[in-house]
Amino acid sequence: MKKFYSFVVTFFFIAVSFAQTNTVLTSGRWDNAEIWSEKRLPKTGDIIEIPAGRTLELAGSIDFSLVNMEIQIWGQLRLNNGKLYLGSNSKITLFNGGTLVTIKET
Predict the structure, then answer these.
(1) Per-residue pLDDT tens over the stretch 57-100
(2) Where are the beta strands (DSSP E) in the chain?
């Protein structure tokens, strides 16, 4: 049993150490790799950061339901007819001044 716990703790620290913060550099659409600090779209394990004064718009659907992600919002996440599916242990943190806006256009 002791080996099992050691494995779990080791796996957790390895998983956390590979998490990268992918920050929105300028307002824009989620599917535009150029607005992200890593110059790629967010992937499994990323910490997504939306700084104050920036708006990230999601117009389609993104499915991260099988993984857990962290989204930190100081600016604005705008779901414009968009859907964001997240894993059950995912976390969205809305900091002071941050907003999450949903728009349903017909």
Answers:
(1) 999 898 888 888 899 999 999 999 889 999 888 999 999 999 99
(2) 21-23, 28-29, 47-50, 55-58, 61-64, 70-73, 76-80, 83-86, 91-94, 99-103
